[in-house]
Amino acid sequence: MSDPQRKQLVGLLTDNPRTLLEEGAQIVADPKAPIPMPMIGHVTSSYVSPALDRSIALAMVSGGRARLGETLYVPMPEGVIAVKVVSPIFIDPEGKRLDA
Fold first, then answer.
1. What contacts 48, CB < 8 A, 6 or more positions away?
2. I want to staple 86 with a disulfide (CB 3.0 to 4.6 A). Which of 8, 11, 19, 36 is the partner?
3. Which pLDDT score is estimated for 38?
4. What are 44-72's pLDDT values in tens digits?
C-alpha cells in the first residue's frame, strides 16, 4: 500500500469532450512503444456528464496521483486517444454544495 507506483484512482478527460472511452480500455504512457506496449492502467468507468457537458472517465493508473496534469494514451483499433490525468472528483471538489 505504500508503493508510490501502485495503481491509484484518477480522473481522465479526453481532448475532444464528445469522445467516450471504452470501459476496460488499457492506458499507456508512450503510444509509439513497440508492441506489446507496457500498460500502466485501465479505464474503470466512462460516462457523459450532463452537469459538465462532456465525457469523463475514471481509471486505475500506476503512480496515478503523481501523474495529475500528465497526458497519457488509450490505444484503440480506430486510433490512439490522448487523455489528461485529473482529479477523480469532477464536480464540487471543495464540497461547497454540501454546505448550502
1. 20, 54, 55, 56
2. 11
3. 93
4. 999 999 999 999 999 999 999 999 999 99
Instruction: Identify how many contiguous H helices and E strands the chain contains and give both numbers.
Output: 0, 6
pTM as predicted: 0.89
Q: What is the pLDDT of residues 14-24, one digit of tens each?
A: 999 999 999 99
HSE-up of residue 28 (Cα within 13 Å, Cβ side): 15
First to last CA, the chain: 36
Would you state the cell numbers that stand for residue 22, as one nine-digit string? 471504452
CA-nearest of 58, 56, 39, 38 to 47 is 56
